[in-house]
Amino acid sequence: MKYIDAKSMLDGEYLEAFSTAEAYGLMMNIDSRELDDKLMNLIDLFTTAKKRGRPVDKVIGTNTESFCREYFETSLSPAQKAKRAAAVIFRYCAFAFAFETLILLFSWEESYTAADIMSIKTDVTGYIVGIVIACIYTLILRYVIRPLFSKHRFISLKSSYTVCGIFIAVVVAVSLLFPYDETSLSVPAAALIGITGVYLFTYEAAKLIIRYRKTGSVSNPERREEKCIEIELCDRRAVTIVAGAYRKRNDRLIMKGKAPLTPDEVMKKIRRSNLISRAVTVAAAAYIAYSCVSYTVRTTLEEGIMSGLLFLAALAVIEGAIMWFFFFSPKSSVRSETRILKKCRDLGVDIFKYEKMLDESGYDDEEKLENDDIL
Question: To the nearest 10°, the Cα dihedral for 229, 234, 235, 240?
Answer without folding.
Answer: 130
